[in-house]
Every structure is written in C-alpha cells, then in structure tokens.
C-alpha cells in the first residue's frame, strides 16, 4: 500500500507538477476505476491537492472520444490525468483540453500495478536530456530501417518530420505526456513505408504477445495481417470502418531504463531497447493521417538504422 501511494504521489507531484492551486482531474474507466480512485484520492490528500475523479464506461478502441461531460470537465481542468484502459491521447477531447491550457498525462492501460512498477520510479528528469537528443536525431534523419531476427524488415520515410520527446514530465500549460512512458517518436511520411513487421512484444489491444503478429505493408498501409493473435487486432481495426486506420502513423524508441514488458502498453512501449510502430491517427504527432484509432505495436529486440547508421542493436541504444 505504501509503494502504490508513493507511485501515485510521484505521478501527481513530479510528473504532473501539481500544486494545491491546480484543478486536477483524473479520468478513469470501470476496468480499474474503483481501485485507482481510492489510491489517487489518498495520494492527493497527502499532497493537499484539489482533485476530482470521473469514472466512465471503457472506450471500444484506442482513440475513441469520451462522453461530452468528460470532455467539458477536461477543458475546465488545469491538469488532466487519464488512466483509462484505452488511450485518450489522440482524441479531440485531449487536444481541446490542452488548447484550453491543461497539462495532460496519459497512463493508458495503467493499473495499480503500474504505480508500483520500477518504471514509475525511474529518474524522469535524468533521462530528459537523452530523450531530447534521440528526438533530435529523428528530426535530422530521412530514412528508418528496422529489422529483427524474427522477420521484421521495413523502411519508413521520415524526411521533413520532426522528432518528439516524451519525458513523462508536464511542465507548462498545453503539455501532453505519457507516464511511465519515456520515448522519442516521429510520424513517418504517409504512403512511403514498405516491408514486413513481425510484432513480438505487445500491442495496445492484445497486451503481451505469446506468438507474433505479422503485418505486410505497401505504400504505408497494412495489406495483410496474420498470426494467432491477429483476429483481435483485425477486429479492432474493422470496428472503425476507416481505411486510414491501416496506415502507419508513428515510429518510436523506448527510453525508460527501468521499464519491463508487463502487458500495460504505457510501460511496454517505454522499455529501453525496444521500438514501436503505431497504426492510425498521427496528426497530433505532426503527421497527416486522419483516423479514429491509434494502436501501438511493440518490438522487443529490433535493429534500427537511421540513414544507414546503426543506432539500436541487441537492446543497446548507440545514441549517447
């Protein structure tokens, strides 16, 4: 109980930079809502924070908009923390809240276990310099090549696209971060990616994968998805009835040195030495793909090259 409260207090005090003067809103859903509600209220009381909590029905897929009353509450808050089972990071609701001045933290797929994980107790401030350096390397690069021993072999054009840093630290109005996520990411150029992706880590709709999901891409769009767990991913994509959901929207490096694969996507995509590609919406990331969904696909031990320069090998980042 002590550790989970410490994790919640770090989320509020260090990551959200919350003070007693801030109006703090925590958005939960019924998956872990009751447990997290008690934990967050206890932590807020210890820190003398003005905190309110909304528990809503779970969204059907990552990126589905929350109900109107939740949207209104998000826009009225100074800090919004979303620990829902499906991410709200890519929603119009999140963007509107940030435009209204809210600092936004996503703990998508999080649970009480996330608050006690080693990843939550990483030194976010110490990692900040490295994360920004990796993001800058993505900005300077034009071509990403990803390969693995399991069959991944894919190229992404990122020319002219800006790299972004997720440090887990919200410092000013309008900031949007993930926690305990620490990563650097970029939105690849639409219609440019070709090759095969063999996803062997986890996804934001399946959790940890015991067997891989393979996806073949042409012109940036998934042409074939197969494997034992593929049906779950295909069903989620089909629910959107939107072809842009099949397009690559993101590439990123995990940069949290204490993160481990747990089945919670907000930690899995942060594992140091991993990399991830996402399908769907990427306009908040600097891209042009409009879609109602954003699904993360995490690779455990990829080899990554930027413009032919090896930058990730055998879980070791070569950018320092």
In short:
The chain is α+β, with helices and mostly antiparallel strands and 320 residues long. It is built from 8 helices and 20 strands.
Name some characteristics of this structure:
320 residues; alpha+beta; Thermophilic metalloprotease-like; 20 strands
Question: Mind explaining what this structure looks like?
Answer:
This protein has helices at 2-15, 33-47, 68-76, 92-99, 112-116, 124-140, 230-240, 265-268; strands at residues 23-29, 50-56, 79-82, 103-106, 143-147, 153-157, 164-166, 176-178, 183-186, 194-199, 202-203, 207-208, 213-218, 221-226, 248-254, 275-280, 294-299, 303-306, 309-313, 316-317. With 320 residues, the protein is α+β, with helices and mostly antiparallel strands. The protein has 2 domains: 2-116, 3-Layer(aba) Sandwich (Thermophilic metalloprotease-like); 123-317, no CATH class. Helix 4 (92-99) links the parallel strand 3 (79-82) and strand 4 (103-106).
Q: Write down the oligomeric state.
A: single chain
Radius of gyration of CA atoms, rounded to a whole number: 18 Å
Shape: globular
Task: Briefly note the structural class of the backbone.
Answer: alpha+beta
- Mean pLDDT value: 97
Strand content: 25-35%
Order of secondary-structure elements: HEHEHEHEHHEEEEEEEEEEHEHEEEEE
The end-to-end span amounts to 37 Å
User: How many independent structural domains?
Assistant: 2
| Low-pLDDT windows of residues | none
Q: Record the strand order, biggest sheet.
A: 14-13-10-6-5-18-19-20
> How many distinct helices?
8
Share of residues in helices: 25-40%
The tally of strands reads 20
Please outline the major beta sheet.
8 strands, antiparallel
